[in-house]
Amino acid sequence: MRELRLLVVYLAAVFMGGPLAAPWLWKATQAAAASSSLFAGLAHQPFHRYVNRCLLVFALAGLWPLHVAFGRHGRREHGWQGPWLRPLLVGSAIGSASLACILLGSLAAGDATLAPNVSPLAFARRLASALGAAACVAVIEEWLFRGLIHAALRRSLPFAFAATVTSVLFGWVHFFDRPPQPEVVGPLTGLWTLGHMLHGFTDITALVPGLFNLCVVGWMLALARERTGALALSIGIHAGWVLCIKLMGYLVVRQAPEDTLVWGSAKVFDGWGASVVLASQLLVLHLVTRRASRPDAG
């Protein structure tokens, strides 16, 4: 089908263009650092971060062309209509609640403790940074996965198929591994680095239950978008998760970082405790929004 072909072209452009552009960005940064100390910090960043940033830039640059290619059927089909305030607040509360349950479980089990001597000023700075990251990540990812891809697939496919495709894609992009630093950076080093970044998909302990949990998260976000016909609720839920994960990394100390079976690692979503919490929340969201869903929702 046309939408799937367009999606494949978009993903190919991102995952080929980003790595091919990364060496040029790296060389430009090295040249800039040689003439100005302002770029010294950037010049010493691991090369895989250049690949990550280029992937992000290509993904963002392709959003509008993808929007046009999918038909530009207007703000309503792609979920940008209001109201905004209440769904955003409700979604943020839903996302925060699930992470709070996981945190309380890990604290009760003794797998984690609250960090001592947290400075109010340092916390305020971390909160501001976390709020900015949550807003950016939630808007960008929901626009791509639920606003564009989900809407395009739903024109001719049932909800379950569209939700599964977007959820698998959503989970997949969160499993990049940290590759070794290349000895020499050449024109194809970005592709070599991307290949090593994809090694994360061969680690079964990372994929289970991590990928399953992210697919449940994706289904929850797709359900929120489907039942409300808009992106506000899914953006709120997504932002709530990102905000809590950022803050938990600062406020919580893992007692046994290598023991991730039940309550997961700093990623939070890679433990079986998260599986129970997220699956329960998906069921509750389904029951609560079923009556309030749009008449034309499939």
Notes on the protein architecture:
The chain has helices at 2-35, 40-43, 47-69, 85-108, 120-154, 159-172, 189-197, 204-207, 210-228, 232-251, 272-290; strands at residues 112-114, 252-254. A two-stranded antiparallel sheet has the order 1-2. The chain has 298 residues and is mainly alpha-helical. It is globular and about 60 Å long. Helix 4 runs parallel beside helix 10, helix 4 packs antiparallel against helix 11 and helix 9 packs antiparallel against helix 10 (232-251). The model is unreliable at 294-298 (pLDDT under 50).
Alpha-beta content class? mainly alpha
Percent helix among the residues? 55-70%
Q: Could you state the order of secondary-structure elements as H and E?
A: HHHHEHHHHHHEH
Average predicted local confidence, pLDDT: 84
Beta-strand segment tally? 2
Shape: globular
Domain unit count: 1
Record the strand order, biggest sheet.
Answer: 1-2
Distance between the termini: 19 Å
Number of helices: 11
Quaternary status of these chains? single chain
Largest sheet: 2 strands, antiparallel
Beta-strand share of residues: under 5%
* Radius of gyration using CA atoms only: 20 Å
Flag low-confidence runs.
294-298
